[in-house]
Amino acid sequence: MTELPGRRLLLVHAHPDDESINNGATMAKYAAEGAHVTLVTCTLGEEGEVIPDELAHLAPDREDLLGPHRIGELTAAMKELGVTDHRFLGGPGRFRDSGMMGAEQNDRPGSFWSADLDEAAAHLVAVVREVRPQVLVTYDPHGGYGHPDHIKAHRVAMRAAELAAEPAFRRDLGDPYAIAKIYWNRAPRTVVTERFHWLASVLGRTPFDVAAAVDDVPGVVDDERITAEIDGRPYAERKTAAMRAHVTQVAVADTLPVFALSNRLAQPLFDIEYYELVRGEPGSAYEKDLFEGVSA
Ligand SMILES: [Zn+2]
């Protein structure tokens, strides 16, 4: 068996940028602490809207070169977070961005949404059996906010965790391996609400005119559902830099922890990241470390 660091974290995301927005501080922290951090991104985000006018030519209805461009953005973001193991599910471009729910791109051949679940999951099983992560992080069943690729990423991650542990499944993909703990990305409603109150008071000092709403934040739930938080404040600058690296997708205010996506609606940037444990045993009643209770 190849030598792997004692703590191994796998994150499964839909598009380049989702990892930095949701888990940037968590990823930077564990990478800095010497854990092996693996990011699997399921699509290239080809259907995203482009923020800077000078890059508008990359859009899918023009040159359709956003996918390759976003590989570069993701690479730059991972450099900021100190993460060296980042991969695309099945290789770059294997599954295409499905567009927003209801778009005609949803069912286009090659779209991630239309992919066979077990076939897509098998690509991830190979990664799980190679890296043998004790901890998996992905979205909730609603994909955080209902985007088809986020819902599909959730399904693929959960299915792959199941299949990777199945002794009879595809031994050509490696030895069976059971992931000890699975978390979904979350945001506690009271914290998010407070942060939006703060945002309203500083909005005039940001480049944005209008704020998003609490429920625009992916994964918002009642506080009781949260079982773990990662205090990423020492890594806030890295997270911010990683988000900025996704130039076509994210605009971050210069001096305040505030950002917007292509809809230009301001959102608070979180340097404490929240999770709900959905598989495995918690190490304590409210965890401050995703590896609590895990043996190397
Ligand atoms: Zn996304």
UniProtKB/TrEMBL annotation:
It holds the Pfam family PIG-L. Keywords: Hydrolase, Metal-binding, Zinc. Zn(2+) binds at residues 15, 18, 150. Binds 1 zinc ion per subunit. It is an enzyme of class 3 (hydrolase). One of its GO terms (molecular function) is N-acetylglucosaminylinositol deacetylase activity. Its EC number is 3.5.1.103. NCBIfam families: mycothiol_MshB. Belongs to the MshB deacetylase family. It catalyses: 1D-myo-inositol 2-acetamido-2-deoxy-alpha-D-glucopyranoside + H2O = 1D-myo-inositol 2-amino-2-deoxy-alpha-D-glucopyranoside + acetate. The keyword Iron does not apply. Its cofactor is Zn(2+). The gene is mshB. This is 1D-myo-inositol 2-acetamido-2-deoxy-alpha-D-glucopyranoside deacetylase. PANTHER family: 1D-MYO-INOSITOL 2-ACETAMIDO-2-DEOXY-ALPHA-D-GLUCOPYRANOSIDE DEACETYLASE, N-ACETYLGLUCOSAMINYL-PHOSPHATIDYLINOSITOL DE-N-ACETYLASE-RELATED. Catalyzes the deacetylation of 1D-myo-inositol 2-acetamido-2-deoxy-alpha-D-glucopyranoside (GlcNAc-Ins) in the mycothiol biosynthesis pathway.
